[in-house]
Amino acid sequence: MSEQGFKPKHILATGGCGFIGANFVRYVARNHPDVHITVLDKLTYAGNPANIDGLPQSQVELVIGDICDASLLERIVPGCDAIVHFAAESHNDNSIFDPEPFIRTNVEGTMRLLEAACKYDVRFHHISTDEVYGDLALDDPARFDENSPYRPSSPYSASKAASDHLVRAWTRTYGLRATISNCSNNYGPYQHVEKFIPRQITSIMEGVRPKLYGTGENVRDWIHTEDHSSAVWEILTRGRIGETYLIGADGEMSNIAVMRMILRLMGCAEDAFDWVRDRPGHDRRYAIDSSKLRTELGWKPVRTDFEAGLQATIAWYVANRAWWEPAKAATEARYRAQGQ
Ligand code: NAD
Ligand code: DAU
Question: What is the pTM of this model?
Answer without folding.
Answer: 0.98
